[in-house]
Design goal:
The structure holds two protein chains of two kinds.
Chain A (H helix, E strand, L loop, with lengths): L4 E3 L2 E4 L5 E6 L6 E8 L3 E9 L2 E5 L6 E5 L5 E5 L8 E8 L10 E2 L3 E5 L1
Parallel strand pairs in A: 2-11
Antiparallel strand pairs in A: 1-3, 3-8, 4-5, 4-9, 5-6, 7-8, 9-10, 9-11
Chain B lengths: L2 E3 L4 E5 L4 E3 L2 E3 L5 E8 L6 E7 L7 E2 L2 E6 L4 E6 L8 E9 L6 E2 L3 E6 L1
Parallel strand pairs in B: 2-12
Antiparallel strand pairs in B: 1-4, 3-9, 5-6, 5-10, 7-8, 8-9, 10-11, 10-12
The chains are: A mainly beta, B mainly beta.
Chain lengths: 115, 114
Amino acid sequence: KAGVTQTPRYLIKTRGQQVTLSCSPISGHRSVSWYQQTPGQGLQFLFEYFSETQRNKGNFPGRFSGRQFSNSRSEMNVSTLELGDSALYLCASSLGGTGGQETQYFGPGTRLLVL
Amino acid sequence: AQTVTQSQPEMSVQEAETVTLSCTYDTSESNYYLFWYKQPPSRQMILVIRQEAYKQQNATENRFSVNFQKAAKSFSLKISDSQLGDTAMYFCAFMLGANSKLTFGKGITLSVRP
């Protein structure tokens, strides 16, 4: 089975721009979660999508949004980019049952640099 | 709110030796899961081992085993016969049983010396 894929792998943007990141889960997985990783804040949960609906949300401003398509692929959008949004964005997929019964498998990440 | 603490920022071990990475967590819930993830220089997050809180038996995966002390809220990872490929950052993570959000510790950088 192919693993979780994320595109693009690297991005450079300037302040004020917006960006869209994509995540394709493992085949058969219906849940996709997004995490932001920075040296200062570590790994922080952004949100989780299941069956095209946001099921969980972390403590990030409204500039961070996401969606999920019927094939379970997910996109994350960040509008009005700030320097502090520079980070590694990781997505993880799981089968989608409730709670921690299932393990999350991570993609390779998208590294975003905001100048 | 749940918290995960990894107090050791760095550790070093000689190849073939054993090393233990510490993790403590805080929660008032009884249904939860604990994980150790490995992040090598490639930045790919890889699951090492998982533990269900309701299981008393410590999880084991080949050279990796955990010491789960539920009352003490401690979840340490033991790596036996350390290999150069074990060099990575290791994250302890917590997930509530009714949720899909992983809460991570700050991580520990492990270096395996030849």
